[in-house]
Design brief:
- By secondary structure, this protein is α/β, with parallel strands linked by helices.
- The chain has one domain: 3-Layer(aba) Sandwich (Rossmann fold).
- It contains five helices and five strands.
- The chain has a five-stranded parallel β-sheet with strand order 3-2-1-4-5, with helices on both faces.
- Strand 2, helix 2 and strand 3 form a beta-alpha-beta unit.
- The longest helix is centred in the C-terminal third of the chain and has 18 residues.
- It is globular, with a radius of gyration of 15 Å.
Length: 144
């Protein structure tokens, strides 16, 4: 099974790592894909984000890192992914992601696995880490 874990890791947080680590035993390959939006500014460059992920998974050959623009489903099809993996933090996230998964399955046939973020990481998203960094706070406890 080839899995796609899409997102925009800014930087790659422990919550994201826990999702990838939990899907790895089931997967032949996991592609961590960073969504790129040319008009959106980011605290970290695409290269910095990719380097962070590659550093975290340097000893895991089944994890690949890529970037993409456009629709996630188009990218998933282009790389031959059979499953998308999404992290869920709240009940509201779950409802949204479940609806999105149903649409993706109908349009592309690609299944989605929704994994609930582990409780210790549920309040920490890359947005929170970015905010802390912008105020010069120490975020090492949230990064792998």
């Amino acid at each position: 099974m080839k899995c796609l874990f899409p997102g925009s890791f800014d930087p790659f947080t422990l919550g994201h790592k826990s999702i990838v680590d939990r899907i790895l035993p089931l997967a032949d390959e996991v592609v961590i894909a960073i969504g790129v939006n040319a008009g959106k500014k980011s605290m970290f460059s695409l290269e910095e984000r990719m380097a962070q992920i590659q550093k975290v998974y340097a000893n895991e050959p089944r994890v690949k890192v890529a970037s993409y623009e456009g629709l996630t489903t188009d990218f998933a099809e282009s790389i031959g992914a059979t499953v998308m993996v999404r992290g869920v933090r709240t009940a509201q996230d779950f409802e949204f992601e479940r609806t999105l998964a149903d649409v993706n399955r109908q349009l592309t046939g690609i299944e989605t696995i929704l994994l609930i973020t582990e409780p210790q990481y549920s309040a920490i998203s890359s947005s929170v880490v970015r905010e802390l960094l912008s105020y010069g706070k120490d975020v090492k406890d949230f990064l792998p």
